[in-house]
Amino acid sequence: MPGTSAFTVAAGAAFVAVMLIATSAASAGERVVIGSTGGAYDRALKAAWFDPFTQKTGIEVVVVSGTNAELRAKASAMVKSENVTWDLYLDGEIQAASEAHKSVTDDLTEFCIPYKPRKDLPANACDASGALVQSTATLLVYRADAAGVEDPQTWTDMWDTKRFPGGRAFPNFDDPWRVLAAALLADGVEKDKLFPLDVERAFRKLDEIRDSVTLWWKSGDQSVQGFRNGEYDLGQIWLTRAKAMADEGLPIKWSYKASFLVGDRVALIRGAPNRENALKLIAYWLDNPAAQAKACNALSCTPPSSDAIALMSEEARGSMPTTAEISQDLVVPDAAWINANAPTLLEQWNDWVR
Predict the structure, then answer these.
(1) Exposed, middle or buried: residue 80 (CB in 10 Å: 0-12, 13-18, 19+)?
(2) Mean pLDDT over all residues of the chain?
(3) Cα–Cα distances in angstroms (integers) from residue 13 to residues 3, 21, 27, 34, in the given order
(4) Which CATH class is domain 31-135+264-322?
(5) Could you give phi then psi for residue 271, rounded to 5 degrees?
(6) In this structure, are strands 234-238 and 168-171 parallel, antiparallel, or unpaired?
(7) CATH C-level class of 136-262+328-353
(8) What is the distance between the terminal CA atoms of the chain, rounded to a whole angstrom?
(9) What is the pLDDT of residue 150?
(10) 242: phi > 0 → left, psi -120 to 50 → alpha, else beta; which?
(11) Among the ranges given (7-11, 112-116, 149-153), the one the predictor scored with the smallest mean pLDDT
(12) Count of H helices and E strands in the chain?
């Protein structure tokens, strides 16, 4: 390059050499790469799980952030091309039971054997599809400072734009069942008769509110930014994100009377380059109730270990979606039906939402 000094060239060469050495050292096995959904969720897991793991083992945890749809698509593409650069990714509890998930992940049945006798863990804490990270809810949130006589509590309230004016937010990614389910509940379908979903009826109900939707969010972090920026007044988002916003001091409230039980699993990608380190990271989570408690204190989630629940604050325990009082209103989705109908649902959703 014209005007470039020998010193600059030498320095550049030295920098490249250092980077190559660092890359070589990292690829030698002292790292693990995990795909997650970004923002406050990642920060909570980093503080409670990833950083303490690194301090104990010396293994670096590299977090790659993306939407749920992007994480699933990337994992699938890497496995199909036999060019896997990640080791783990977080997938929804429902999707983790699907054939699509099984086709790109390793079966952890053998790894899970030592966890089956654990009295503090439920039977599904570790299974073939991955390890349970936490259970939470997708629910109705709203601005606590919005003018109004009362607070919205149900999906029917979400659809009532006269009593509860303002913009609405719904998720728009590869998992539309929760929006359709909310529409049916708003239309008077009883909780115990929700599944199988009456999809045509759901879309008719969604037609009524479509013009009031000011944000179709694709990631949890986008739902947070949208609320922070005043893009909506009522929305369907994850409890973990709502709790993080409340902890920031943002004027947000939520209703468990309009909620669906969801959760995350950490799955091992087939052909993971750092497989053993990945398994160590999963084991660290399951073996450390204190780490689970710290994360769920921040996110109001339910950790897999009952010992972890005992370590959580009274406030956090009371806001978990699985407490007896809250679970009376919580809708448990039919995972088998959702997975069996996922391709058709997504096709219909994409035709409607665009």
Answers:
(1) exposed
(2) 91
(3) 17, 12, 21, 31
(4) alpha beta
(5) 85, 20
(6) parallel
(7) alpha beta
(8) 49
(9) 86
(10) alpha
(11) 7-11
(12) 17, 9
